[in-house]
Amino acid sequence: MMKEKAKKYLSVAIDWLLYLSVAFLCVSAVWLLSQVFLFSSFSVPTDSMTPAIVPGDCVLVNKVLRGGRIFNLNDAFDHKPLEITRLRGTGKFRRNEVLVFNFPYPERWDSIGFDVMRYYVKRCIALPGDTVEIRNAHYRVRGYRGELGNIDSQNSLARYMHSERNREEMIKGGSFKAYPLDSVTGWTVQEFGPLYLPARGDTVRLDRHHYAVYRNLIEWEQRKKLTAHNGCFYLDGSEINHYVFTHDYYFMGGDNCYNSQDSRYWGLLPEEYIVGKATCIWTSKNRVTDEICWDRVLKKIK
Fold first, then answer.
1. What pLDDT, on a 0 to 100 scale, did the predictor assign at position 287?
2. Is Ribosomal protein set as a keyword in this record (predicted)?
3. Which residues of the chain fall below pLDDT 70?
4. Which residues constitute the domain of residue 214?
5. Facing residues of 118 across strands?
6. pLDDT tens digits, one per residue of 278-287
């Protein structure tokens, strides 16, 4: 009699363990799929987006807007050439939206790379097809009359750079000269552009200026070396005089203009590198006391 009861209890226990295991696997699968296709959470370690986002904030990222990305994780971790496919989304990215993306220059400044574990959060200043420029430290997009980025920070930077001494300090610190750090353009964070942001299908004529600003993009798209010699341009040894882009590109800027490693310094961002739109701060911790900052919890990102 006791053996029969023991067998019955054991059978029930096994059934419950199987049920809980299946339930756990289902929940895990749903969570994983949600992380890949719907949303993700990212912790912000720097002050480059202050005051909108501060160190210790955890932001929720909407992937549905432009569609989740699918790529080979093994290739990403091995730093192999990566094919990124984006699913169909519900809309498009807009100027002034805060986006999370894989930093495109994780290893070297002269070629675009991909680090699956290195993410940046910045504000979208310009879209594919825009012409962006910086005048007196303020962002401008031709044909667009709205404000772009953190105007208070841009005003402050403009006032700061009115002093010759301050400009010299920025030059010494390596934060004054801007992309592509070439004498052909001579661009700075005070005066930059105009720079056209290629959209898929756009054609540009190659000259010294376009070679300087688009070389990294062309080499990334073609996975071939672009060189210049005696006024001529060669892609993997074959001479070309124009180029048709196959990807869309964005210009990203941090709200903290004094301390932000953004497109002013490293150039344009391929759309495939964008994870999604940062929508809200779902939680936040004081990095000194480790206490929850309740005034920032569930705060919408504007």
1. 84
2. no
3. 1-38
4. 203-244
5. none
6. 999 999 999 8
Of 88, 75, 114, whose CA–CA distance to 220 is shortest? Answer: 114
Do residues 92 and 146 share a domain? yes
The region, left, alpha or beta by phi > 0 then psi within -120 to 50, assigned to residue 111 is beta
The answer to whether residues 84 and 222 belong to one domain is no
Asked whether residue 27 is domain-assigned, the answer is no
Q: Looking at residue 29, what is its pLDDT? A: 45
Tell me the catalytic residues. 48, 122
Report the phi/psi class of residue 88: left, alpha or beta, with left for phi > 0 and alpha for psi in -120 to 50: beta
The residue assigned the tokens 């750090």 is: 181
Token pair for 164:
């010759």
